[in-house]
Structure formats: structure tokens, C-alpha cells
């Protein structure tokens, strides 16, 4: 049996780590700071040499990101936090507390999550304040980042696209403005491997009992812009007036006798594709708006493919490279989605028919008219109200 090699043995002279200090210093003098930091992390000896010798200026804040991004590639269990500017550990759970409504997201182990919203790393999936559509869903850059990491590195290293699914129903009671209307909002996600990029399919449904088609019209006389269908939302680049025109054109076609009328729209700026349709469902009627957007590869929150969808249009002057506008997010999504648009639409309509949502969804605990579909990770955490 040979003698065990002591762990502290000095590296061999013919290896990088074994070179004399002067020689190492001469080599690394030519390297940029980020490369020097990475070399110094290769062994204790190199770390001691570089930290002792130069007392190097350490990058702070955002300046740490290039080194962190490089380390992240070698350590897929860790990911760069664009808020804290450190590496966080991914705990390996499929949902990481990021699924469901904003209240479910409180279970995310990251203390910094509330700051993601403050610092503008969120996509609220509408241009208005949260109260208006009562969509209690915030989509953070972190969702995109972790879903794409799972795609790049494997299932232990990020969240599933299933964690990005969300379905919410809201009833609009009250005798005055919009009686007998129920609205539904849903999102589902797919990763399109070609570019690659994460695509979202967002569906808004307005459901009226009987065939009261006039209720589906956007009306200028409604004082509260929070009433449907004023809240149906394509993208931040389409003005509220233009939204009303696009939706009303299809509703008016139905009223004038056209069978199952529909129209499509593509945004020149963010390439969001949308389809507007009026469908009869049993004895009831629905206005359905489906929008597809591509959020890009999720490598950095500075990517225009993410930024173009965020904030309000007044603040957002981001434009896309023509190359990134040429693939339709709708085609990319539907090519890989196991669930067709028709299947999604009939599933969503089935929640609304005869108030089935009351049997399969949970009431959001402090808002009596709002219901959402529990995700796997949120079972048992709801406050039940009847
Ligand atoms: Zn953080
Ligand atoms: Zn747009």
C-alpha cells in the first residue's frame, strides 16, 4: 500500500497552480479583473496569492454580475440574483414558491422577492393597477430566469413551465354597471427550443349568461375603467381606446348576425399576437381574447425581449431587433404546446358554465368575488370561505 498523498501537498511546478508567485503575477497582470477573480477562485494558494499581493479592488453591486454569471455556469445549483447581486441556492423544488397568486408567492424562500416588484423586475400582464382586473398574479424576471435554467441545465435546476400556469375567475356583481358578467384570466407557458425563449399564452374571457351580447361591448360611459371589458388587455403598446375598437369590432359582427366572428392583431413593437373571438357556449356567450408573447431566453433582465413587455408605455421606449420580431409567438407556442387553443378555451369556458369554478377553485381569502385554481404547491394553504 502506498503512502496517502497529504491534502496540503504543494502543487507540482509544471501546473498552473504550481508556478512561482512572480511568474503567476506577470501572467495575470495582463488579465482583466473578472478573469483574475475567477483564477483566484481555482485554489486556496491562488486565492492567497492574488488577494495578498494586490489587495485588488473588489467589484461592488451590479459590477459583480459578470463574475457571478460566469460562476453560475459552473454551479448550476446556484443562480444570480439581480436584486441582491449574489448567488442564491435553488432548493430543487419544482415550484420554488413561485406559482399561483401573489399570496402563494409569499412562500418563495427568497427574502428579496418583494423587492423584485419595487425594482421593476416584474411583468404585471396588464397596464393597470392590480386592482382593476383583479389579477393577483405577478410574473417576475425570476420566473423566466428559473424556467429557462431548467431548460438549459435539467429539471433539478429550475422551475417547471407548469409552475407558470395560473387561472383566476372574478364575478362582477352589482345592479349598476355590469350585472351578470363573470371574467376569467389564465396564463400558461411553453419554452420554444428554437430561439430559445419562454412564450406565454394569456387568455381573458368575459362570460355573459343567456345571449346578452350588448354586455360584451366596451362602453365609453362606464365610469370605472376596472369594469370588463375595459380590462381585457393585449399589450402596453395598444391604447385603451384602440383596445375598445378592436374588441367592439368583433362583438358588433356577432350582433349583426355573423357566426363565431374573430379577428387577429399583431403588435408592431413587442410582436404580441392576439386573437379576439365571440363564441356561443351552450345557451351562454363569451368574448375571448388570447394573447401570445415571447419573453426571450431569460439570461439577463436587461434583454429587450423581456423589457419590451414591462412597465407602462410612457416609461418604456424599448424596441426589438427585427430578428426577434420575425417569429410569431403564437406559432412558436402552439407548435410545442400539448394543449391546443381550442382545448384551453373550452376548459376555461367549462369553469364558467353553471359556476363550476365554485366547485373546483378556491376563493381568494380576502376578496369574495375572486377565485383561483390551486396549483400543486398551494394545496392546503388556502383560507376557505363559503
Ligand atoms: Zn436575492
Ligand atoms: Zn406590444
TrEMBL record:
**Protein name according to UniProt:** F-box domain-containing protein
* Organism the protein comes from: Penicillium egyptiacum
Q: Record's Pfam families?
A: F-box
Q: Where is the F-box domain?
A: 13-60
Task: Spell out the InterPro entries in the cross-references.
Answer: F-box-like_dom_sf, F-box_dom
